[in-house]
């Protein structure tokens, strides 16, 4: 009877374990993979409890802020610049930067395993890219004042990262290139030079009177999202052991069949051929390129072992608590009391397992790669063709003498 009950409990544990936030976004990911961004937005609207693309949830908190952030990126991919701006700015206010530099195992565990109920806090690259990508929106709408605001917000984030000893983020490089462009076109060459220097680049030569410029920004692919894993304690121990206390290591040997629930990164989606950029039928080369997926993997590698150890420690704590209940009731000579104690222990562990939902929250619609090109042209009308990941965007841009225009393609497949 006891063995049968354990078998049933294990089945319940496996069947009942949740995938957390990533299960809320699975419909969005499938729609994007199929090249259907409007269906992806509709899925997010359902999750947010709103009807129209422009609607905002009544109360933005927890992972709903991430859903709005995902919606902002998808709107950007369909050139809904105004809607994308609104969503980026709404989500940005709800997301705080996570201080990874001082995190111990328990602190990281609280961040990733809070029943997905606490406010989401973003790793550095996510916080920086909110401003970088929204800056692109302002450039597309030829709004230099708004673009300068986003550049300053990015600088504040960069200063915070430096002050908290986090080290530089590669996202700041391409962000500084774009900010340099913004201040150059605003006529503030001194500030532009500072941003270009931050990006490790020299300021370009001034435009001639018979020249204009087209700025192209291309984002393609999607970064790997987080997925839930449910494995026996014995399978988790080899990787988690270096991060566990001695008492946890000893306790772990008493119940290797218990289950550990933790998040990890999904496999990266395959990337297609390099993007195509053409201006008036002539190919233009993309310059500065950011490997956003590399940023995601690097940040995850910093905390992966601690995350697994935190999940393993909680698993061990559940086992120890259950055995304590059983031991207390087994001291009685009454078989009924022993049976009740076993059931209390069993169902207590089942309930604790059900509550231990791996935190799979992240900004899932960041492009896997982000690149820019600056193309000098003669004043007049110019045809631009952009292509990446099987998606295209074409448009005509009128460039005034000494002027500029911006266009982007975000192919989130």
Description:
With 413 residues, the protein is α+β, with helices and mostly antiparallel strands. It has one domain. It is 52% helix and 17% strand. The chain has 15 helices and 12 strands. The protein has a 4-stranded mixed β-sheet with strand order 8-9-3-12. A 4-stranded antiparallel β-sheet has the order 7-6-10-11, with no helix packed on it. Helix 4 (37-48) runs antiparallel to helix 5 (64-77) and helix 12 (233-240) crosses helix 14. The longest helix is centred in the C-terminal third of the chain and has 39 residues, at 292-330. It is elongated, with a radius of gyration of 25 Å. 42% of the residues are buried. The model is unreliable at 11-16, 97-117 and 337-346 (pLDDT under 50).
